[in-house]
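Tutorial, part two.
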Amino acid sequence: MDTKLKLSSRSRGVSLKVLDLENNLIKIFPTLTSAAKYFKVSHKTLNKTPNMGIYDDKFIFKYELKDLRVWIYDSNNNLLMISDNAKKAAEWCNIPTSTMDDHIKSSNFYKNKFYFYNIKSNPYLNND
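Running the prediction step on this input gives:
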């Protein structure tokens, strides 16, 4: 299993697809915490399953890293930077993360200075 996936499995950067033993999709969880609550198990239990792939002899778990990067553009559509995540992007722009998130969702410029983009804000992509 990929080391980066293991390290980020405790964060919002990992989603979980649950399939039956015939590979039919049952449910998609945006975080491991939400999956742990659904299955009424501890987070530690789900952290062990990437090594096994099968949970409780009934389900196959597929872990996926989310792309949390944020692209920052100026008002002339010049790329200023690509940040690893929203928190770092907001720090770079010296604005609250919630403000940046609002501008990502609305696709509006922040004070006619910055335009923010991330994969999950693109309505044309499937972002399970």
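The helical segments are 3-8, 32-39, 43-52, 86-93, 97-106. In part three we will examine how such features are distributed along the chain.
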